[in-house]
Amino acid sequence: MKKSNFLRYLWYRLENSALRTLVLTVLSVILTQSVISESIEYYGDIEHIKYASTGIYILAVVLGIVCTIIPMLENMGFKNRRNLDTLYFFPIKREKMAAAHFIGGFIQCIFIYTVTFAISGIYLAINTDFFELYYLVGYYFLSILLGFVIYSFFSFIFIQANTVADGIIMSVLWMFVLWVVMYAVYALTKPLYIQEGNYEIYMLSRRLSQIPEWGMVYAPLNNLTVIFQSLIEVNQSGWNNFTYAGIYRSQFGFFIAWGVIGIACLIGYFVTFARKGANKAGEISDSYLGYRLLIPLYGYSLITMIGSIEIVTILVFMMMIIGYVIYRRSFKLKARDLVITALGVIPLIIGMM
Amino acid sequence: MIEIKNLCHSLGGKLILNDINLTLPEGSIMGLVGINGAGKTTLLRLISGVYSADEGEIFCDGLPIGDEKARERLFFLPDDPYFTGHTTGKALFELYRVFYPDIDRKVFLEYMSEFKLDEKKPIRNFSKGMRRQLYIALALSVKPKYLLLDEAFDGLDPLARLSFKRAINQAAEEYGTTVIISSHSLRELEDFCDSYALIDKMTIASSGDIAERVNRYCKFQLAFFEDFSEQIFFGLPVISLEKTGRFARIVLEGKEDDMKKALEKLSPAIVEQMPMDFEEMFIREVEGRGYKV
Asked: I want to staple B286 with a disulfide (CB 3.0 to 4.6 A). Which of A79, A256, B20, B291 is the partner?
């Protein structure tokens, strides 16, 4: 049977990224083995309390890194107009081309993670007998789901940009934006409780204070790792593991929320890919989810958090201006940019109240 | 057949092409001409599917250009194709084989050998002309039904131009390949294009058979016994006139014999007919459209 263009292109992508995948796999295995081999050593036996760890958090680190880098590597080619002249005339629909890059990239992530995970699991099984390693099976599958959320998130953000540099900057900014915004909201509500003793606002403030922890895209994977690490290391009596695990299990809604974000990003990636004109490549990144949104979000949130006129407040205003210079690639800013920066006075006044 | 109907396209909010209507019959070799920035490259990108048109439609053998089956019949060679630092000719061939499984390796190697290119060497070591030759070898080994070439002669030395023109003619004869080629080398286009389309002021200003179009004009050199006024040509279909003392060069629109008779009535000392070519015709066309030549 004749293979479709999509399958042939997917296979071509995988073949062409084989060396890169191999190098990343070797680096990941070296990193995880060096961490795990140290973690499993007992480093204390005071009053019959043994301290040892699987060190499997390093697996989450590996998954987080590859699911951040590979979407960028897979989509870099679409930021060059000359490249698009070649790629977009090929007889394959844009959606299929996007799918080949998206799926191909995620297969690379899974490959790197699976090999690293398997070697780590085997190493732990051979060298330890005091961990509940069967939990690793559940951890593997659930972590891949959360890795997919990270992968989908960065694919979507990176495709918003029109240049590689903007894609990297926007990805970094999106990593922390929710965290920053929620802290700003928390900073606003906290004094209300202190000043007025309003219990409801206090509870709201408590709930809001939990959100920043979950604001980073890596938070679900991190928290899943904490849950499973505590379960696997339950016999390590130095830790009150079940309690620790229970805390995060009670915040199950956040896992669901990030799952929804992941699916939304997946859809957004394909929609953006199909709609984005080839002429945009290399141009100013004018996506509504790019600098246009991020500069005021960061600026206003930081100004709110500071809440007073200090040197650092002026620095934030200056950072907003610098942000617009980077966005426009020119010192000649638009009046709109200056107005948005000047409007930072409003959150400053609110923050000071 | 490629059909373009009511095509409009803007870039960065600026209208580049407006109400383009063009039909390219099978087996023809069409030269796409126009001044810099006229929209030739944009039109080729639209036909090849690189850009999606804002308005209007493009059909390839009755199929919309967005259709994979339509694009399987096309090959677009951009002005400056992309390659990464370590890309070799062989690697490029493998990429094109993904989308054109029937690409002919034998033909590719034949052209590589004719152009004296090593498929295992990184393209970054190639000159612009050599890179162009490599992509031409790829294009011809795909044997596409429609070949779109942007600034095709750019970077090619005279010998390479000759090989290239020969190869295009061969493809047209052997595989019935229909070619659209944009270039500023109008003399080169005239050598092997049978038709042309002139883009001006965002639309197809004129199109048709090159020979027929060129034959609509005739050029004469005249010498008078004494200085004369340009007014003497009043009433003649003058396209352009260059006067130097008692001498004049004039381009007229009309049949050669009729125009010669009309000029002889002005009693010049000498009336000599000069060859009119595609480039001359192009210059006169754009001059007639208000451009300073």
From this structure: B291
Q: Are strands B178-182 and B29-33 parallel, antiparallel or unpaired?
A: parallel
Distance CA B269, CA B111 (A): 55
Is B2-209 in CATH node 3.40.50.300?
Answer: yes
B277 CB within 8 Å of a chain A CB: no
What is the CATH class of B215-288?
alpha beta
Tokens for B150, please give them. 């942007």
Query: What residues have CB less than 8 Å from A254, skipping those under 6 apart?
Result: A214, A219, A220, A223
Angle between helices B105-114 and B89-99 (to 10 degrees): 150
φ/ψ (deg, to 5) at B185: -85, 85
- Would you kindly state where each structural domain of chain B is located, as residue ranges? 2-209, 215-288
Measured between beta carbons, the chain B residues lying within 8 angstroms of A86 are 78, 81-82
Going A235 to A241 to A243 to A247, the CA torsion angle's sign is: negative
pLDDT in tens, B19-72: 889 888 888 899 998 888 888 999 999 999 899 889 999 999 899 998 888 888
Split into its structural domains, chain A has a count of: 1
Per the CB < 8 A criterion, the answer to whether B83 and B92 are in contact is yes
Of B48, B82, B101, the CB nearest to A83: B82
Of B49, B68, B98, the CB nearest to A88: B49
**Could B99 and A84 be called an inter-chain contact, meaning their C-beta atoms sit closer than 8 Å?**
no
